[in-house]
Structures are given as structure tokens and as C-alpha cells.
Design a protein that fits this description.
It comes from Brassica carinata (Ethiopian mustard). This protein has 323 residues and is mainly beta. The strands form four sheets. Strands 4-3-2-1-11-19-18-17-16 form a nine-stranded mixed sheet. Strands 5-6-9-10 form a four-stranded antiparallel sheet, with no helix packed on it.
């Protein structure tokens, strides 16, 4: 059985030769929007953002998860751990649990990493109209390590920082967002936004699987339709995969903000799970510094083991559950 890297690498697209597309991808017009505005996207059930934090003599990994169980209750989960080869979690917080079911509070713990304190206020948080689990304004989440500001999220934390004797102007923790994982449930239309660079713009990403007429098959009638996968960034199609039952795994390299981004998909379970059609697909967008295709699908552990002077890659993973 071949390894996953070799399977994906053999079909990668050289962006400097756009006419050398493999048979799994059709030619497309990048000026056309791929999604009709009348379609309603799937529900986003949870989002996990993974940050690498650099403090004096400390390298941390902080995971922040926002969840929405498709009811009025939104949940926040935070974990803080070391960024070494064998990270041990030193703090866990879950506001959806029985003990922490409150929208404002704080928690602290003494650990080998020092004193870690988390402060949060979601009492006035406002969420996107599409019931996304991550608030967009009116909230804050603060993580302190030995009284140093390690992570700051939200837009209403100034008063709390002053009480702690901290100033936002002095916030310099070397924060890097290295991974974002988003979970969807519903149909096969997924919409999200992402930044591929810390200083870059936010891009709208749309993924859709739809049925289209099949061409080039002698025995297929003019009415025969097969699933086609379309991926758009900022209303422009970047890839279109026909005969998706055959091409259920693949990858393509694209440019975004001058960066090389590996786009990978695996929709095998959509067609071959039991019962059929209930499986989970995975889509991944990952930036990289070079053209080495063997670096595809690196594990998160390998991403955070790089030398601190190296540029960290960013990955966006979309887990799409078809119900």
C-alpha cells in the first residue's frame, strides 16, 4: 500500500504550467463565480485555532475551540501546553461543562510552565448570522503566563488588562496562528474565511459538490449527471474536479497572496462509507515555503518542531460531514 504523500504528490499541479492540468480537473474560467447566491451553506459546528506562542524561555501551544451544538448555547474550550516533542497539557478549560457553564469568569493553575491564568467574557458576545460558533465582537479571551500576556482574542478587554496592570500596546508574545480546524454538518456547500498570512487579507473560501452533466462517456445519456467538486476563493474558481467518485482524493497547488498553497481533498467516505453518503470529507489548505511536494500533509507535531527562526506554515482543515 502506497503512503499518502506519494499518492497525492503524483497528481500535484505545477502552477507555472496551468495548461498541464490532469484529467481529474477540468479547465475553468477564473472570472466566474462558482456558487449561486441563493444556496444556503452547511452549519459550522466547531472551530479550533492553534497558536504557537513565544515567551522568554517558553514556547507554548494554545488551542482555542469554539463550539455550537446547534442550540442557543455556545461553548469555549482552551488548552495550554508545551511546544516540545512531548507536550503535556497544563491547563484545560471548557465553558460548556457543568462546572464552567458561565459566560464570564477566570481560571488559574500552577504548572511546570508557570502560573497560567485564563480570563473570558462572552456575556455580550455577538455571533455571525449564519450561527457560526466563533463570536465576532463584544467579547474577550485572555491567557496570561507568569503575569505575561500570551494570547489576546476579542475587542473588549482594555479594562480587564488595566486591572491586571497590562497594556495592549506592550503585547508582543510572538503569536503565530499555525492551524485552524473547522467542522461543518449539513449539505455539500461549505463557506468560510481565512488568512494565509498574518499580515495578509481575509479571503472567502467556498467549497461545493454538485451534480453536473457527464461528458466524454459513450454510454452515458445526455441526462446523466455525476458529482463535481468546485473550490472558489474570493468568488473565483481555483479548481473543479469532475467524476468525483473516481477522483475522490487529490491535490493542487495554487497562489494566494504571493504564497504557495497546497489544496488537498479527500471525499472517499462520501461515496464508500456505510451507509452511503453519511461520511466525512476533509479539505486542507496549507502554505509552504518551497516547491517540495513531499512536505504535503505534515502532522501538526512536525509543524511546531521547527526552529523558532523558521517561518511557520499555516494550515486550514475543513471537516465536512454530509448528513
Amino acid at each position: 500500500m502506497r503512503d499518502l504523500v506519494s499518492c497525492f504528490s503524483e497528481n500535484s499541479i505545477n502552477v507555472t504550467h496551468p495548461l498541464s492540468l490532469p484529467s481529474s480537473c477540468s479547465n475553468y474560467n477564473t472570472s466566474n463565480a462558482c456558487i449561486p447566491p441563493s444556496l444556503i451553506p452547511s452549519i459550522q459546528t466547531s472551530i479550533t485555532s492553534i497558536y504557537r506562542i513565544t515567551l522568554p524561555s517558553k514556547h507554548l501551544i494554545i488551542k482555542v475551540t469554539w463550539c455550537n451544538k446547534i442550540n442557543p448555547s455556545h461553548g469555549l474550550s482552551i488548552s495550554v501546553s508545551s511546544a516540545d516533542q512531548n507536550p503535556s497539557t497544563s491547563l484545560k478549560l471548557n465553558t460548556s461543562s457543568r462546572f464552567f457553564r458561565k459566560k464570564k469568569g477566570n481560571k488559574s493553575v500552577d504548572s511546570d510552565l508557570g502560573k497560567i491564568e485564563v480570563l473570558w467574557d462572552l456575556s455580550s458576545a455577538k455571533y455571525d448570522s449564519n450561527t457560526g460558533p466563533e463570536p465576532i465582537q463584544g467579547f474577550y479571551v485572555i491567557v496570561l503566563v507568569d503575569a505575561r500576556l500570551a494570547l489576546l482574542l476579542g475587542d473588549s478587554s482594555e479594562e480587564t488588562l488595566k486591572k491586571k496592570g497590562l497594556a495592549f500596546d506592550g503585547f508582543d508574545s510572538g503569536k503565530s496562528l499555525i492551524s485552524r480546524q473547522e467542522y461543518f454538518s449539513g449539505n455539500t456547500f461549505y463557506s468560510t474565511k481565512a488568512k494565509f498570512a498574518e499580515s495578509g487579507d481575509s479571503h472567502e473560501i467556498v467549497i461545493r459538490c454538485s451534480a453536473e452533466k457527464t461528458e466524454g462517456l459513450k454510454q452515458s445519456s445526455s441526462t446523466h449527471r455525476s458529482p463535481v467538486l468546485s473550490v472558489c476563493i474570493d468568488e473565483k474558481t481555483v479548481t473543479k474536479v469532475k467524476r468525483l467518485q473516481w477522483n475522490f482524493r487529490g491535490n493542487q497547488t495554487i497562489f494566494v497572496d504571493g504564497l504557495l498553497v497546497d489544496l488537498m481533498w479527500d471525499v472517499h467516505d462520501w461515496f464508500f462509507c456505510n451507509p452511503e453518503g453519511c461520511g466525512k470529507a476533509v479539505f486542507m489548505f496549507r502554505t509552504r515555503n518551497g516547491l517540495d511536494s513531499s512536505r504535503l500533509w505534515l502532522e501538526e507535531k512536525k509543524m511546531v518542531q521547527k526552529d523558532e527562526q523558521d517561518k511557520l506554515d499555516f494550515s486550514l482543515l475543513i471537516y465536512a460531514c454530509k448528513t
